[in-house]
Specification:
Helix content: 55-70%
Number of helices: 25
Shape: elongated
Oligomer: single chain
Largest sheet: 5 strands, mixed
Structural class: alpha/beta
Distance between the termini: 64 Å
């Protein structure tokens, strides 16, 4: 128990049950039932769109949703399959099959647990916003593209996996357009959009599935109108919870699938913590990021044993839970139980659901994911943000999510270093210091005249690898008036931190100054930087007396040294 406490592993369920009441249970029960109903069509649609059978989506929502609520660090988080994973899961299934997907998901789960154990939850939440919007918009575009075949009822043997090749294939098959399928797809979209205005308690996607399934069933069995593909025409439904099976993990499969697993882990972490953070803003609660990552990892380790797909926190379902009164993880557990009952007792009926109807559901999902208004507003931001946004978007659409996330992160880091380098600078003071607005001013005199033979170099901003070479470059000269100085003061009052490269450059400067018989003094060093200097042994080299608390003290020290 001490070990878990040290890891901040504190599931919200155990805290919630301490002061649980009948009123809280009734609120959680109502919310759990509603969220389970909302999750039903989405779980089926996400499963099919990901390249697996519909019940796999339900199994993921049942088992994954239960584990996330039981072990999670958020009181209201609802776990399950989400649209964000469709692209990556479909790609893995297409390349490596279902065994490859299972291995990738388990490895991702192990990574997520590791992130939680290492307390990386707070770091992951600082993912640059343009990256999130970029790959989310890219995923939305890809999801929409994958649904064109079913939406239009096109007759195609195989749909290519690439974005461009898919549209080329659709263009070639446009002659097989099925007007009846297109009509069902359009009706599905219209029902999802407009039915909530009439029936507010039932989600539009469920209304669309019920109404259009009944319509297609009547058309097919009583009016003899066929040609509209249903789930049963493509899949064989197994309406039961499968027994767990082993997963073939070995060194070769790990090496092959590690990049895909990394993408699943990163996407799962980002989406789950983003969902939990949004939920906190509504409920006023505070989730435990590291506990949430451990729970998400556990869910992704267990779910593949039953044939499921990756699990993450679902923002839409989580907000539905909050909106209907759910305030503890019990609501999430009830949502999983509702889905289990539906799978066991009504699962066989899902074979009658029309494929164009599910395509319509996913078109709406893609539209909501796209956040096109946010995307458009980000295009007005600084060029660096626009570059990251567009690069992540187009890499997601044209290549895959793995490349997009990795490239987006690297690009964002490079641009961040560039920005920090631009905000950091080194100024050279030759004759006198202007102390008029200086925090270190101790006398009435607004200007301090530098003693003869003394130079002052003021560093402003972080002293890290992106700016460290500026200091060395600024000193590649012979001194003021072409005379070598006797003392150099490095003023560091505006240096919040220093990395190993900055320290290395400072040590190099000290060695060069020694050879040239120039004394070096540091001024205004803060506690963090001073701790680094002490730990590295630099304080001992330069001498305690040559690290001054302020510029006045440094100038007095310099004056004494310059007269020697």
């Amino acid at each position: 128990m001490d070990f878990f406490n040290s890891l901040l592993f504190k599931p919200k369920l155990f805290t919630a049950l301490k002061n649980y009441s009948k009123d809280k249970f009734l609120a959680d029960l109502m919310s759990g039932v509603i969220v389970g109903i909302v999750a039903l069509p989405l779980a089926i649609a996400f499963g099919i769109a990901s390249g697996v059978s519909p019940e796999k989506g339900l199994i993921t929502a049942i088992i994954g949703g239960f584990i996330v609520s039981f072990l999670g660090g958020s009181s209201v988080q609802i776990g399950g399959p989400t649209g964000a994973f469709i692209v990556i899961v479909y790609g893995i299934v297409h390349r490596f099959g279902l065994p490859g997907l299972a291995v990738s998901t388990v490895l991702a789960g192990i990574m997520l647990v590791g992130m939680g154990v290492l307390r990386l939850g707070s770091i992951i939440k600082f993912m640059p916003y343009p990256i999130i919007v970029g790959f989310t918009g890219g995923i939305a575009m890809v999801i929409f593209t994958t649904q064109i075949k079913d939406l239009l009822g096109l007759t195609m043997e195989n749909v290519p996996s690439g974005f461009i090749s898919q549209w080329i294939a659709y263009g070639k098959a446009i002659g097989t357009l099925n007007i009846k399928s297109l009509a069902i797809g359009i009706l599905s979209i219209l029902l999802i959009i407009y039915s909530p205005k009439v029936v507010k308690k039932i989600p539009g996607s469920l209304v669309a599935i019920i109404v259009l399934t009944l319509l297609v069933y009547v058309l097919k069995n009583y009016l003899g109108i066929t040609g509209i593909e249903t789930i049963g025409d493509r899949f064989e439904i197994n309406a039961s919870l499968p027994a767990p099976h082993t997963i073939p993990i070995n060194l070769s499969t790990i090496h092959l699938l590690l990049p895909s697993a990394f993408t699943i882990a990163m996407l799962g972490a980002i989406e789950s913590l983003l969902s939990a953070t949004v939920a906190d803003g509504v409920t006023g609660d505070r989730h435990h990021s590291d506990t949430e990552l451990v729970a998400q990892g556990a869910a992704n380790i267990v779910v593949p044993l039953f044939g499921g797909i990756p699990v993450t926190g679902a923002i839409a379902r989580t907000m539905t839970n909050i909106g209907n009164g759910g305030r503890t993880p019990v609501a999430g557990i009830i949502h999983a139980a509702v889905l289990l009952l539906i799978l066991l007792f009504l699962g066989s009926l899902t074979k009658h659901i029309p494929m164009p109807c599910l395509a319509g559901v996913l078109v709406i999902v893609a539209y909501n994911m796209s956040e096109w208004r946010t995307f458009r507003s980000l295009l007005k931001n600084p060029k660096s943000d626009v570059i990251v946004l567009l690069a992540t978007f187009f890499l997601t659409v044209i290549f895959d999510l793995t490349i997009a996330i990795e490239t987006g992160i690297l690009l964002a880091m490079a641009l961040l270093v560039k920005r920090l380098s631009e905000t950091s600078g080194i100024s050279i003071i030759k004759d006198e210091l202007n102390m008029e607005a200086d925090a270190e001013k101790t006398a009435d005199n607004d200007r301090l005249t530098l003693p003869k033979g003394v130079e002052v170099y003021e560093i402003e901003g972080p002293f890290f690898f992106g700016v460290a070479n500026k200091l060395e470059g600024s000193m590649q000269w012979t001194g003021i008036d072409n005379k070598r100085p006797k003392v150099r003061i490095i003023r560091m009052r505006k240096v919040p931190f220093m990395d190993s490269t900055g320290l290395h450059n400072l040590e190099s400067l000290y060695r060069i100054s020694q050879k040239e018989k120039i004394r070096l003094i540091l001024s205004g060093v803060n506690e963090k930087v001073r701790a680094l200097l002490d730990k590295s042994g630099f304080t001992e080299k330069i001498g305690e007396e040559n690290i001054c608390s302020n510029i006045g003290e440094a100038l007095k020290r310099a004056e004494g040294l310059s007269e020697c």
